[in-house]
Amino acid sequence: METKSGFAAIIGRPNVGKSTLMNHLIGQKIAITSKKPQTTRTRIQTVYTDDTGQIVFLDTPGIHKAKNKLGEYMVAVAERALKEVDVILWLVEPTTFVGAGERHIAEELAGIGVPLILIINKIDTVSREDVAKAIDTYKGLCPFDEIIPCSALRAQNTEDIIPCIFKYLPYGPMFYDPDTITDQPQRQIAAEIIREKALHALDEEVPHGIAVAIDQMKERRGQDVCDIDATIICEKDSHKGIIIGKGGAMLKKIGTNARFELEKMLEMKVNLKLWVKVKKDWRDSDFLIKNFGYDKKEI
To answer: Which among 64, 19, 42 has a CA at the least distance from the CA of 295?
Structure first.
């Protein structure tokens, strides 16, 4: 039987639920999620396969006005994805207020020549009337091939999304083995899990300025144990104190939460050791952002 296969980019402003939707569609957590904006920093590729064919999802960083070199990298990653895919899913919130961020995305999409599906997410937070008004508002902003209101978090009305994407994909061979879920290396996923737990535990100001570097990740020979040494990088000495916490309590909390999820992912015991280092203004250093896995050459 002939199968369909292709690439689908998930785009939108920061914090509209892109990673939550992708994790839900894949049926497995790959991208980290947080209520804080700019959680996703790189382009994360995940793979959905069924009898119809294969969809390679690109979960992109939120498109926003960059304030530093890391921000510029994130926006470049998101905008590059638009030019490489067969279908674009644009996630928005159910509101009639269209801000500068959405208008910028609409301009980017004008005349792009790729099937465009509008996903109005978070419908569980408003009334049906508000959803209908949001649909009317966005219809006037951009020509869409499909509009699907849903709640990724509550799995409401998400069952139509996969068939809708397949509708616009070309026939052709699969890009990945049917068992593949992601092309992300385990070390990168491990670093992102630790960063997610830090995002959840820390206050507003600190998370934007942290990165996680995996110094060592090694399975013990003949044992179901993986030793992971990781460093949380922050921008200020005051942030280092917050991340460590009184008597090391905050760092211990981050480590405990990360270890639980790492053990689920690796299906073995994890011995996790965390350190904290200060690298002042690392988000504006080409060398450091590349060192922490955000390489412009890979965009």
So the answer is: 42
